[in-house]
Design a protein that fits this description.
The chain is an alpha+beta fold. The relative contact order is 0.07.
Length: 283
């Protein structure tokens, strides 16, 4: 029995699995895995080490530099914002000025257009007045006439706005066909020797044949006090002056208009005007 037990023990020992022997490289690896845990303690001890003065100064300078950079960035952003705001205001001001200039230009054009329309309307009114005056020609004033000025204009109608269609020579004989009023003046419609007709201001046309040198012109005497001398033969014409009672004048023309007789006279000082025949007795 003892022999059998000893044999069984040997057999069990023979079949027991062998424990592999660790290689030297594996041992080194295991040692290296454990090494960091042993070396970590010195690193922690080093981080906990107080900063030196030089390190503190460097840290403070770095923080100040960082803060200064932040402030500089803020200043730059502020400057950009100010510039953009100024550019926006300038653009708005420019747009406002341009709008005002356009509005002023439009208003100026409207004023000019209105003024031009008014001028055209006034010209049309004057032309219409001239046409009406021509239609209302007073044929009671007619007969031979003589031009009393140099380069006197002949117009196609009564009025200063009528077109000039010719020029009379001084002393030229014309036939007066009638008279009318326009622009505050008296106008004669006349016919020339060539058959052409037109209008001439009565101030430059004397009724009569014009024969002789004027020595045969009659004279007259003023028969009233402060008798008016007028620019034309009408009570609507301008007053040029006043005659003295008993003043002697030279009678240049004799016209009847609107049922009233007028005399064109010359005073001793050479001035010429019209006086009502009621206040001038022919000598």
């Amino acid at each position: 029995m003892a022999k059998e037990a000893e044999a069984a023990g040997k057999t069990a020992a023979a079949v027991k699995p062998a424990v592999p022997e660790t290689k030297p490289e594996a041992k080194k690896a295991e040692a290296s895995q454990e090494a960091p845990q042993e070396t970590a303690k010195p690193a922690e001890q080093k981080a906990a080490r107080p900063m030196t003065v030089k390190e503190k100064v460097a840290a403070i300078q770095a923080q100040e530099a960082k803060e200064e950079a932040a402030r500089e960035e803020a200043r730059m952003k502020e400057l950009v914002a100010i510039k953009e705001a100024a550019e926006k205001r300038a653009a708005e001001e420019k747009a406002r000025r341009e709008a005002e200039e356009r509005a002023a230009e439009e208003a100026r054009r409207q004023v000019e257009a209105a003024a031009e329309a008014e001028r055209q309307a006034e010209a049309e009114r004057q032309a219409e007045a001239a046409r009406a005056a021509a239609a209302a020609l007073d044929t009671d004033v007619s007969g031979a006439g003589v031009i009393t000025g140099t380069d006197v204009r002949m117009r196609d109608g009564a009025g200063l706005d009528s077109s000039v269609i010719g020029v009379f020579g001084q002393g030229e004989s014309v036939q007066v066909l009638g008279s009318t009023r326009a622009d505050g003046m008296t106008w004669y419609k006349v016919s020339r020797s060539d058959g052409s007709t037109g209008y001439v201001a009565a101030d430059y046309c004397s009724m009569g044949s014009g024969d002789g040198d004027g020595s045969s012109a009659s004279t007259g005497t003023i028969t009233g006090t402060d008798v008016r001398m007028r620019a034309s033969y009408s009570t609507d014409s301008a007053v040029l002056g006043y005659f003295d009672n008993g003043e002697t004048v030279t009678i240049l023309d004799d016209v009847t208009s609107d049922g009233q007789r007028w005399l064109k006279v010359q005073r001793s000082d050479g001035s010429v005007g019209w006086v009502s025949a009621d206040f001038c007795a022919q000598n």
